[in-house]
Amino acid sequence: MAADAGRSRLQGPEKAAVLLMSLGEQAAASVLKHMGPKEVQRIGVAMAGLQNVSKDTVRATIDEFVGNVQQQTGLGVGSEDYIRNVLTDALGEDKARGMVDRILLGGNTKGLESLKWMDPRAVAEIIRLEHPQVIAIVLSYLDSDQAGAVLSEFPAKTRGDILLRIATMDGVQPAAMTELNDMLENQIKVGSNVKSSPLGGVKTAASILNFVDNSIESEIMEQIKEVDTELGQRIHDLMFVFDDLTAIDDRGIQTLLREISTDSLVLALKGADEGIKEKVFKNMSSRAAEMLRDDLDTKGPVRLSEVEGAQKEILAIARRLGDEGRIVLGGGGEDMVG
Description:
By secondary structure, the chain is an all-alpha fold. The protein has helices at residues 2-9, 12-23, 25-32, 37-49, 55-70, 79-91, 93-105, 110-115, 120-127, 132-141, 144-152, 156-168, 174-184, 202-209, 214-227, 229-238, 250-258, 262-270, 274-282, 286-298, 304-323. The chain folds into three domains: 2-70, no CATH class; 110-238, Annexin V, domain 1; 242-336, Annexin V, domain 1 (Orthogonal Bundle), CATH 1.10.220.
């Protein structure tokens, strides 16, 4: 019973942290070498946060891992379903989908993976002179927050075109992937040929837009709607914006509030409607809610850019908690606003 209780308290990254720390430094380092920067960061944070882990918890975590491994056959029969199920359980559906696709497509994505470790400005410099379709492929492959930062480095007149290409992308052909790898071969060892990769799409475009500044986001949306009004609306409906926080249940809001600094919350609520404010007040103690109201009343005028920056920060935290399975976002767009 104690083992089951210990196991149930751990999230995916924490289970991975317990397992790696049980392996020893060299073995753990060998495993981490095969992970991307976001996964390394998440597991590293989990390692740093582990305290007083009981023997029962360690044993339960290892037993669970061994049980999962034993579900595979020696010949790898059904391995694709196994990989999808395990990674989806650990990372959430959206994060796992892209990773599984890259794993199953083969080894010629090393060049793209190397970009994930780079500063957004450096990535933009590498691909700035490439065809917009190649740029769209690169941004589709990156995590949305990094892709949003890279997109912001491009001139305003080209951002809309790039995001439009991402939204209308329906897979990547081998020739396009080969072209991309050729561009990067001076930096990495080029892998083998791949099948068509399911990159891009409306959801990817919406996710990237979530991470760019509001002023840039508005410019891009205007450019897209000038070309295709319906597509622009579909992208907008899939975006997760600050008003969508009202769709999170009370327990989720309480979890989110524990991750947010008071200063960021005050700034973000200065530009929020009453529905969002009441949702927040409702999920705080009466004393904390009263103090927050006082802070909002006494806070002088603030710049819109500061409000938007604080809201973006909170949305990024909400998306992270959603990816970790700690809250349920319930989707984005106008239909989800309560």
